[in-house]
Amino acid sequence: xxxxxxxxxxxxxxxxxxxxxxxxxxxxxxxxxxxxxxxxxxxxxxxxxxxxxxxxxxxxxxxxxxxxxxxxxxxxxxxxxxxxxxxxxxxxxxxxxxxxxxxxxxxxxxxxxxxxxxxxxxxxxxxxxxxxxxxxxxxxxxxxxxxxxxxxxxxxxxxxxxxxxxxxxxxxxxxxxxxxxxxxxxxxxxxxxxxxxxxxxxxxxxxxxxxxxxxxxxxxxxxxxxxxxxxxxxxxxxxxxxxxxxxxxxxxxxxxxxxxxxxxxxxxxxxxxxxxxxxxxxxxxxxxxxxxxxxxxxxxxxxxxxxxxxxxxxxxxxxxxxxxxxxxxxxxxxxxxxxxxxxxxxxxxxxxxxxxxxxxxxxxxxxxxxxxxxxxxxxxxxxx
Length: 384
Description:
384 residues, alpha+beta
């Protein structure tokens, strides 16, 4: 685990920004493209959080393997022959080449560079021509572990192998899912849903700008007037919202009076957004799982897994998936325009409308909280 960086801003400035946010003001626009802020956030937030990694379906059987990233760190998760889920930094301990080049199924993890081979528990199985090397200890060269956890339909990872469990990091997540009638038992999803599509979105915007966009529906009647804004009630008060424990919960319900022949109107939708950037969304006969991750100071990638309920209307489910796909493409375009605007230096900071953007303010609060915690950590280290 990398050491915690000192924030590129003073403790006093963080406190001022926290107070300004309570009045509706965002962080300085430079934070959306400055490399120092990006590097700090990658280490202090992305690499220290639980991130949604894959649906349980892709890691159900012994040998199942899924590759991905936590920020700039390649990660692989495998289901062992003993049935246990384990995660590792996807780097051979020899020269740093990947031990798994793609998701799929395997009996061992083999580096294609020099053929070092690892068991599915991460231990080094073989290293060619190393037997007679002085001091060569295979037991000291296992893959570097990462933490793995499961909730409902999703497998989560945390780069910190000693991280508290997901249920401790977000103590009311399972409870709130159950209260909304959303199952938390992985077996339910394995039996009732299938993965039908995986989509990756490359956003030409900073991850915080993506998050600002993703958590508010102030823009739904305009940017999404023919997609999400058409299919859901999006005016303030027409949908449920709650926040707690780095968690945002949305519940959209239909207005039967607005239902028209030929128009797609959702029956019910519950979305659980888990900071930073994970979403479990259950709507009618579809289940969407996605995680957005920073890939650079001005780029973000979102990986989305689309599942359909076996007993549901498959044709309609695929239409809904395509509607969501178009919605997120519209978000891509919107945030790209915003990123260029902020990069111009002509707008020092955003002025939110908290009554319309409550979740956006909350996300910014969590980010500033991470800055403040890192600043306190730096002060404590200096005093020791």
